[in-house]
Design a protein that fits this description.
Rossmann fold; DNA-binding; transcription regulation; single chain; transmembrane; Arc Repressor Mutant, subunit A; HTH_AraC; 2 domains; two-stranded antiparallel ribbon; about 10% strand
């Protein structure tokens, strides 16, 4: 069962104003900032909300935003160093206010796993269907789209298409390391580096990471990189060697073995099976690879 709550910001706090299942304890899984053009100009009251959003994100809550709501999300700092989308008419304003965020308004939804951004106000439907797919599966998403008389999400950039990392495990130090790993998916990160980023001793970090995510850091990194490779195979015209290099594999043979281990297909077979018409598709992977 899906539980819906509404939250409202006051001068001192963010409080729940509606709960579809009142009277029992809860912890949000996803928070959505709706379209709000006032948010593009009104920054005076943002401190309470942005602080609360950062706290919720640190606890593993997924944060999503639509249109002008993306400005609020960007003010938390959670989008720095990442791509984000908003309404195309807000592109230049967003770029000026947030120079450390790569605004990509050609795309309806950009999904980083822990944060999602969507374009204009009506992009809420695309965002909603993406969240339905993540929470309830592809079949339910398609049935929902049919019921709503809307097309299911098209060929968009999805950074973690089949790997939704476990973030709501309650270990804030490990969540911090997971979130940092998202921005490091093009290179191999050692346990020592991750431990330093999480402010933990390496042995403690390793034990807590495995407990929280149910996998070792190396496998976690490999899954992130394979998901990135899948998107590049579908949406770009880069060859397999270029894709392997682009996600940090110096040995293309090693990349092929890891890809087949997790996907069950070789990179070339995956492209042939899932990239129908890719030769005419825009080179999205190239345009969205961080500098």
């Amino acid at each position: 069962m899906m539980r819906i709550t509404h939250w409202q910001r006051t001068q001192k706090e963010v409080a729940c104003t509606y709960d579809s299942t009142p009277g029992s304890a809860y912890e949000p899984a996803v928070l959505i900032l709706p379209g709000n053009l006032q948010a593009t100009v009104d920054t005076a009251r943002d401190k309470v909300l942005t602080t609360w959003l950062r706290q919720m994100h640190a606890r593993g809550v997924i944060i999503a935003a639509v249109c002008g709501g993306v400005f609020i999300l960007a003010r938390t700092g959670l989008l720095e160093g990442r791509q984000a989308t908003t309404h195309w008419a807000l592109h230049d304003q967003f770029a000026r206010e947030f120079p450390r965020v790569r605004v990509e308004t050609d795309y309806m939804v950009i999904d980083y796993g822990d944060v999602l951004t969507a374009g204009g106000v009506l992009a809420w439907a695309d965002l909603g269907l993406r969240l339905v797919e993540r929470l309830l599966g592809l079949a339910v998403m398609l049935e929902t789209a049919h019921y709503m008389n809307v097309d299911p999400p098209g060929r968009e950039q999805r950074f973690y298409s089949d790997f939704d990392p476990r973030l709501k495990h309650g270990d804030s130090a490990i969540v911090k390391a997971q979130q940092w790993l998202i921005s490091q998916r093009e290179c191999t990160v050692s346990v020592a580096e991750l431990a330093r980023h999480a402010c933990l001793e390496p042995r403690t970090f390793l034990r807590r990471f495995v407990k929280a995510t149910d996998m070792a850091p190396l496998e976690y990194q490999q899954r992130l990189r394979v998901c990135r490779a899948r998107e590049m195979l579908v949406f770009s015209r880069l060859n397999v060697d270029e894709i392997a290099s682009g996600i940090g594999y110096e040995d293309v043979g090693s990349f092929r073995r890891v890809f087949r281990k997790f996907v069950g297909l070789t990179p070339s077979d995956y492209r042939r099976r899932f990239s129908a018409g890719a030769g005419n598709a825009p080179d999205l992977a190239r345009s969205l690879v961080p500098d």
